[in-house]
């Protein structure tokens, strides 16, 4: 990100985003916030903080989970899934990235078609639940949705297979609202890192404002993407490998580099990646914050993805318990506000800024994989 660093510094710094106590979410069915000082019960303090700085959750598997249901009502409550509007409100979730990932190994036209079906489903579900959900494609729209008492829904991540090795399809998906693409599962983003075409995909993503998700990518792909991306990268489901040796978790040196490039590590609330208790999740958050910095750590519920979750974090309503644990560990309210809301907003804003700058000097890429990697 070196050549845009000076420009990016002219925008709001990480610690300045959304920390000026904006108006609480309207339309939330809960008692008025309790005045909770440092000596108050941590859970009461957590709920008070989350009223002003709700959770921007980096990953939800809800679209695919809803495909198997013949009928559902997310506004009244839906016991067949982990996520519905009442539980999102109880958990103080203000924004949610809805995954377009596909199960199995779909490739080519089948992967493109299935991704489009997922995208259509998300838009249909959001339109059917207007009192609780609202589509958003930018940081400003996320804030608007939250201020109207709605949960902002962002599209992505989608899998790299959804592109079918076509930058034209990438642009079409972006035009339909895609905000995040995972750089794994394609020939141009493998164990040996990004190919020449893969690097062109990242450049075009920067031009469009589509964020790169590096969770599940090879270490070589992660390091190369960190080097060439002018926009911050995200790891939508990655914890600390030093604490739990899961392949999607990040080694310490990558966490340090992620912090240096102002990327974002969204720690998943899954027993497999972080452990079976709230304390285990908090240990990972402590570790990532120490190495990458408080401006580069966030939360990823990973609900409705088929994963088992830690005790007391079984669904989207559990975030106050996690924040209470972090308050008990001495996290400042400023760092917690970044963790829950500010860091995701900063990455979205920076991606939009980078995109506007790139479009002034770069035309849409017409590169083909056969030309670069053939």
TrEMBL record:
Name the UniProt record assigns to this protein: Peptidase M19
Basic and acidic residues biased stretches: 1-10
InterPro entries from the UniProt entry: Metal_Hydrolase, Pept_M19
Domain of life: Bacteria
Pfam families in the record: Peptidase_M19 (PF01244)
Gene source species: Streptomyces dioscori
Spans annotated as Disordered: 1-41
Record Gene3D superfamilies: Metal-dependent hydrolases
GO molecular function: metallodipeptidase activity
GO BP: proteolysis
